[in-house]
Amino acid sequence: MILLDGKSTAAAIQERLSQQVHMLQVSGGKVPHLAVILIGDDPASHTYVAAKLKACQEVGFQSTLMQYANIREAALLRHIEQVNEDPTIDGLIVQLPLPQHVDVQEIIYHIRPEKDVDGFHPMNYGCMARNLPAHVPATPLGILALLDHYQIETSGKHCVIVGRSRTVGAPLSILMSRNSDPGNATVTLCHSHTQHLDQLTRQADILVAAVGQPRLITAGMVKEGAVVIDVGITRESDTTRKLGYRLLGDVDFAQVAPRCSYITPVPGGVGPMTIAALLSNTLRVAQNQVYVPS
Ligand code: NDP
Prior knowledge:
Layout: E1 2-3, H1 6-26, E2 33-39, H2 43-59, E3 62-68, H3 73-85, E4 91-94, H4 104-110, H5 122-129, H6 138-149, E5 158-162, H7 169-177, E6 186-190, H8 197-201, E7 206-209, E8 227-230, E9 234-237, E10 245-248, H9 253-256, E11 262-263, H10 270-286
Helix pairs in contact: 1-10, 2-10, 6-7, 6-10
The structure holds NADPH dihydro-nicotinamide-adenine-dinucleotide phosphate.
């Protein structure tokens, strides 16, 4: 079994990004600039945003945090409009989840597609589905980069994805089934209504779990020699830890790992790759490499 080390792979990508930032500056270009909107006090969201801002600093990006304890939807839309119009800002992300009173789709719809480095805008989503240039959602993009880094063959393989969220499972199903490399897989997309989940997961050459239920994937659900990608991150209280919690994936790692050819750990697997992919999307805007749909 080989561990798919997202932490070191992401560090290598970030090293390349910082070199590209340097080259951009030397050639008179601008420093890439990511703006992050964070609303509320969800501890996990604060941790993710802190990690994204730290990564920006490490690769030499400028970053701006726009943080609100609470905000009305109309005011939030005005802030997004300001960022859209600000030529110094290349990318904007609005950290999810948002408070109940804010319509997530409305917010995403108002981010200019070119600056939507999370790749959530319908324009980017549609272009991705058509295999046209677009911002691809960071987590699926990070997973593809990880598969690519370890030269894992996806063509002709059966990829079973558990979880069909708009941000992870659904876009990954499109990317894995596209006529490209990585891609060309035969994809099964599972969700909470899927019957006989274990029968489907046992057919997977590549199994992706993106559910948010710790240890949902047990050893009996995994084919011998499968590649297992664990996207799930759930905080479980653990008073023996300094932080008071530990992070659990959707896969029962101890039981499943011996059956796998490759497996991602949690933490240190998909998480760092997501951040590296977000930075890559932002750099492409600063390099004027993004097709702007009209
Ligand atoms: P969502 O809650 O948006 O989606 C969960 C999906 O799992 C849904 O499609 C749901 O089905 C499906 N599901 C729920 N229960 C079952 C079940 N018993 N069997 C099969 N499918 C089931 O989650 P996200 O995609 O946003 O996140 C999933 C996990 O990944 C979370 O732990 C999250 O924290 C983590 N995550 C990690 C990232 C990283 O960088 N590592 C990035 C993003 C998320 P239905 O559609 O029918 O409700």
